[in-house]
Amino acid sequence: MPIASIRISKESKVIHGWYIHPIPYEMTIEDFFVKLTTGELSPECNIDMIDPETIDRVDISKTQDATTTQVSPNCNIIEVTTSVGIYVHYRLKPDKVVTSNLEPQQNYFTIMMQNARRIKLYFPTFPQLEKANRKQKLHSDIVDWIQRHGEGWSTQSYADTQGKQFVNCLTETIWYIDMRDHKKFEDRSYHIPKLFLEFFGHANPESYKQSRKPFDANELNLHCKALAPYATSSWILKESFNWLRDELDNFIVAISNYAGFLQRQREITAANHASETPIRTVDQATTIQIHKQNFWVTPVDKSKYYNLEQLLNDLPLWKPVDLEEFLPTDPVYV
């Protein structure tokens, strides 16, 4: 795919430093500028809307420091970058100084484009199934959740790549925790942010004829590592995602801390099993409980169990005894 290294400046101010962008198909240099500043191309750069009418001139060169050639914005960008050079410098017109008591008129093209950008948002698309299971429904619930907050991605292509990857990763993480009971986090004082709680309590392993499995520190850590990069993605650093950024970071920290707790518990258990020294004394490990104590013993029963009673009275607590020889030859069934 053809590429171009782009720079946008206004007088001495650099608006967008040298950055290599793909050229997906043939278009004019001006059209490429519009697609770049509206986020249709390279949305990760987050370039502000700029009216193409403000382009003063376009210079192209083979290297950043080489002699430049001025070209028309109407030229085909693939042809020009192939024959002249891939370094394209858009130079914008300087701002006009308004000396009037009236407020400067706003650039209505910029306002229109900004409004269009705010209104036109794109979201990840998933197959629409007639009978979606709980996990598949979770995908849709997360997409609806983002829509309810009035946010999305700048292009459908971006939504179906970065957006879909994020939704998939968040779904897998939530589903894993919910299948093993998210309340275990709270029981150990590791708090899942309230923003995400609406997605928990829906997984029902019994409906899949499964029991709730225990958490595994390694598996939980893998989910944590998969989710972590999204906390610093270019799209989530935008102001429009302020509602999600810190809460996602707190969610990742809670998962990481709980995985660390599980790992420490596993290490303690392994050390205890390998130890030759008892962890608890015999007295600590022994409990005696009497169920429905019978205070009245008939003379017959007292005689029948006399030898066993004497043995148990004299027997140390830690020493086992075989009761087989003391069982009655005429047991009573109740």
Structure description:
With 334 residues, the chain is of the alpha+beta class. Among the domains are: 3-92, Phosphatidylinositol 3-kinase Catalytic Subunit, Chain A, domain 1 (Ubiquitin-like (UB roll)), CATH 3.10.20.90; 134-272, no CATH class. It contains eleven helices and five strands; from the N terminus they run ββαββαβααααααααα. β1 and β2 (13-22) form a beta hairpin. α4 (134-148) packs across α5 (156-179).
Which features does this protein show?
11 helices; alpha+beta; 5 strands; 5-stranded mixed beta sheet; elongated
What is the structure about, briefly put?
With 334 residues, the chain is α+β, with helices and mostly antiparallel strands. It has helices spanning 29-37, 77-83, 108-119, 134-148, 156-179, 183-187, 217-227, 242-274, 282-285, 299-304, 306-314, and strands spanning 3-10, 13-22, 55-61, 69-71, 87-92. Among the domains are: 3-92, Roll (Ubiquitin-like (UB roll)), CATH 3.10.20.90; 134-272, no CATH class.
